[in-house]
Amino acid sequence: MAYKEWGDPANPKVLVCVHGVTRVSDDFDALARAMADHYRVICPDVVGRGKSSWLRDPRHYQVPQYVSDMVTLLARADARTVHWFGTSMGGLIGMGLASLPDSPIGKLVLNDVGPSLNPQALARIGEYIGQAVRFPTFDQAANYIREISASFGPHTESEWRKLASDVLRQDADGQWIRHYDLGLAVPFKAMTPEMAQQGEAMLWAAYDAIRCPTLLVRGADSDLLTPQAARLMTERGPRAQLVELPGVGHAPTFVHEDQIAIARAFLLA
Q1: How far is it, in rounded angstroms, from Cα 162 to Cα 257?
Q2: 185, 130 Cβ separation under 8 angstroms
Q3: Phi and psi at residue 29, in whole multiples of 5°?
Q4: Is 42 in contact with 17 (CB distance < 8 Å)?
Q5: pLDDT digits (tens, 9 = 90+) for 54-67
Q6: What is the pTM of this model?
Q7: Which domain holds residue 29?
């Protein structure tokens, strides 16, 4: 598993930032720079994405595998204090870790994710994950990334280009493709309503076991985390502090100073 690291490598305070299902560690460049004065910041590419290796069996592209990988990463980091910032899938991984007995996670930020996720939004995500799209030029590929990422909210042209370049690469034929294993779609396609119901029950059990201070950030226009689910998360388990961001869907990128300030205020309080 590849990861990027910021700040003093001897700093015992570690902030781990974990991306969404089709994104990469580069998403946190701005947030990591802003937090590196207080933390050693570690931003991994979850297995199957970016510079990390791919799994031989794509059926294992699921949260339990990712949690196991992160346990190994935290052991390598040799951290005394761990704070966690997780966007979407990265938040689910954080929930799994924070729910463990004697978890090392002291503070948790969940970026537009929770135990209850809108099935229609999951279906939308699962639909585009497995599409083998290829583009002859970077600009065409970047326009595609911008289109499927419109729910991130307003960004400048240069910000959109970075968000695109982070998840694109050229194949052997010079075509631009997405920087992840298309096998990520396998667990989505195998999901049945019964499996989804069982998974949600397990996620709620994990959430209810969390004891550390928790911040829940929700894009006000998010189709993945409903307002009802977000409110319920403020009433049970760690009783998360809820902040909603207007004009943003799934999921806030935390590349802008106003969003970074929200995370910084909570983590350093």
Answers
A1: 16
A2: yes
A3: -55, -45
A4: yes
A5: 999 999 999 999 99
A6: 0.96
A7: 3-115+192-268
